[in-house]
Amino acid sequence: MVSSELEPPDGRAGIDAGLVKRLIAAQFPRWRGLDVVPVEVDGWDNRTYRLGEEMTVRLPTAEGYAPAVAKENTWLPRLAPSLPVAVPPVLAEGEPGEGYPYPWSVRGWLPGETASYERVDDMARFAADVAGFLHALQRCPTAGGPPAGAHSFYRGASPAHYDEQTRRCLTRLRGHVDTARAEAVWEAALAAEWRGTPVWFHGDIAHGNLLVDGGKLTAVIDFGTSGVGDPACDLVIAWVLFSGSDGSREAFRRAAGAAGAAGTAGTAGHDADTWARARGWALWKAMLVLAQSLERDPADETEAAAQRRVIRDVLDDHDRFG
Question: Which residues form the domain of 260?
Fold first, then answer.
């Protein structure tokens, strides 16, 4: 069995709309009359509910995700003025109560839909805009920022933290992917040690955390795995969302590397070693999800096919650039 980073308990910590209503009534009675409705697209580490028309309530699903509440509530207001698109406005922080054991938060609602090919007018331009957001984030002052570690699930640190898990995946996936090439990618990632100046990273730049409106990037959400360290983990989207066939992957590569290559102050340079570590992060996660998918339902090819595509693209990218 290949386990994930953190498995929330059954029932997602007992979270439902009734609990949210009770928490709001007890701790923020001024909002007690507002409707509470689950959001259409929810995450794994938090459950999110609409609170009226202009707010959301966000509750961690397990103890390991709870530290993100204070981290985001502290740092999002400080980062927001320096970023080119919106991030979640922090309105209030709730305390454990009503049988719910973790801190939680109330945020302002951000309009938009999660990114997809159908919702983006120009994917190459969108890729460049995502890279622009990352450069702006990396230029934010890091003094006092949380260094990569357990709170970020080791995003921003070396991918070597997941070496044992990755090697279990390599064993489990023999016959399903080209594990000899995959092992070469992983070894290259481990060898490409990071020696740069720590910068801010988001930690989970994925389509579900990128909001679009009118076909363009308008907001980035879910900074729960953010911190200060190596930004290579934020390049994984190059293979997960962007494609070689429409030019978006190359547009992202150029834009993500441009400022660093030019030596812009405060921006991490995305050199060959940075991309090698990024391929390692992408490979680890894709193999982990594929192994779990095969264990759950070997006949279901939907998730498996998506992860095989990511793995194939990462391996091809290594052969081309590595």
Answer: 113-321
